[in-house]
Amino acid sequence: MSDAPRVGLVLVSHSERLAEGVAELAAQLGGNDVPIAAAGGTDDGGLGTSIEKIERAIREADRGAGVLLLADLGSAVLTIKALLDEFGDDADGAEAERPSSGTRVVLADAPLVEGAVAAVVTAAAGADLDAVLASAEEARSYRKL
Q: How many domains, the chain?
């Protein structure tokens, strides 16, 4: 396995426990090679999302190869897009460059659990941010039956 930095993952949920649980699952699949950070709940421990928690999680997951964000529900997506707008984004608000590091930060249009699993496996293999994003977004079409 290469010593090159891996794409980081940030899991955004309205529930701190849900974000941490998905992060735990993904970490077990990706080993210690993929930085994963959970950003769940509000700053006071309630249900909701926090721009500050998301920003801290991005810093935690950033190793210089890009950061992929996954969200549970629509309002989490809106919170992420507001943060990316602050960073300076592309036309649809789903991608930005973090000003302090220049790291590319991208929001995946993917289910939280399946997208995180697909993304961590791809990131652990050393793939770049575009490939990790594509893998997460492909999870939208996974069938269970």
A: 1
Q: Is 14 labeled as catalytic in the residue annotation?
A: yes
What is the helix, strand, coil percentage profile of the chain, to 5?
Answer: 45, 15, 40
**Could you tell me the mean pLDDT of each successive run of 10 residues in the chain, 145 residues long?**
84 98 94 93 95 96 96 94 82 71 92 97 96 97 89
For residue 17, give every residue at least 6 positions away whose Cβ sits within 8 Å of its Cβ, in sequence order, or none: 40
- Active-site residue (options: 14, 81, 98, 104): 14
CATH number at residue 82: 3.40.50.510
What's the pLDDT score for residue 131? 98
pTM: 0.92
Domain that holds residue 134: 8-140
Residue 145 lies in a domain: no
